[in-house]
Amino acid sequence: MIDLDELTAAVIACGKCPRLVRWREGVAKHPPRRYVGRDYWAKPLGGFGDPKARLLIVGLAPAAHGGNRTGRMFTGDRSGDWLYAALYVHGFANQSKSEDRHDGLKLKDCYITAAVRCAPPDNKPTRLEFKRCRPYLVQELKLFSNIRAVVVLGKIAFDSFLAAYHENGGVIPKPRPKFGHGASFVLAKGINVICSYHPSQQNTFTGKLTRPMFHDVFRQARAVLYSRDVG
To answer: pTM (2 decimals)?
Structure first.
């Protein structure tokens, strides 16, 4: 089995989806005015965080001018502002802001990944693109064998995680768990899955997702890990 560094290198070198390659590179060549003159990563993104993490966070895909620009998951956009602020408050990050991949941010006991590793047009990967990218998430599940809590950000991340979990040999409970903000359930080996709305501007600007709601999710995750620490 390959190690995490080898997996990350394979992700970054991936060119399986021509539509996504064209999009991510085209965005870098024609950025909005506020980013003119900035260097864009414009490649797929590996995961980010603690290689010994017990908390796994699964998102949808990099943002065109967020991760696709900065080269790190949830970095350089509003969704990342929400996520890293929450991780900092609950002890999973050493700082509350994530502006670029050289800003000194470190995660503790937490690793962030996504269902798709390239920025997609309109934030909507196709079914085939999800399928092509899923082996990377499956491989991460093999590598992170000590995961005890999983936070899924949005319904699509929820479905993608369960598909990868099943492909990795996991058994999906019956009846199949349903997504809902704050909903949680336990998989085999004591893996607690906690659902959250995605911290996209569509959700945060409309009040569908509030900061207290979002912080409650990570409070749940921390309680899972802490209760195990104290036996």
So the answer is: 0.96
